[in-house]
Amino acid sequence: MMSDKLNLGVIIGSTREGRWAPAPAKWIAGVAERHGAFDVDLIDLLDADLPQHMAERDMWSTQDDPSDEVAALSERLHRADAFIVVSGEYNLSIPAALKHAIDYYMNEWAAKPVAMVTYGGKLSGGQNAAQHLRQIFPELRTMTVRNTISFPRFYQHFDDRGEFTKFDESEPAAKTLLDELHWWSRALANARAATPMPSPY
Q1: Which domains does the chain have, with CATH numbers?
Q2: Which residues does the UniProt record annotate as the domain NADPH-dependent FMN reductase-like (predicted)?
Q3: Residue 2 pLDDT more than 70?
Q4: What mean pLDDT is predicted for residues 13-28?
């Protein structure tokens, strides 16, 4: 029996040594699993190991024979009905590895919704990164949802055991985000099934 759940890709958007991104990514993935509307795929860009040099054969979902790494991530992105991107804020923007991964693909992102979970060392909590993603994704015909979750000055909120203390209080906001993401996921999945998205060119 096929599951009625939609497929959600949670993307760990940082590859830096010592990164904090896996912690909020695993948290939101866990909340999404408990939410019950999604099958969750946790996608770590560090493990994806995309080539640094973007060769012609790998670019923009071409029909050429892509490298193994590009093809493997393409399959996971294609399978997803929605995304949550988890990103820190690097110099008022997103990590280079995240932009690199976005730029490798086009059709994989199209007509799907994306939500954002951000963090940063300043009071903005990574919202500059979120705003840059809101500028980038529409070019790929990807819809960014209204709600976000941010963790400002995240380094200040660890207890004596090294556990982050703000996840529990953020769960209501996460449920609201997931409810919105699920609505758009279902609406756009139905639209994709009904008719192919027209070419933008």
Answers
A1: 6-194 (3.40.50.360)
A2: 8-154
A3: no
A4: 96
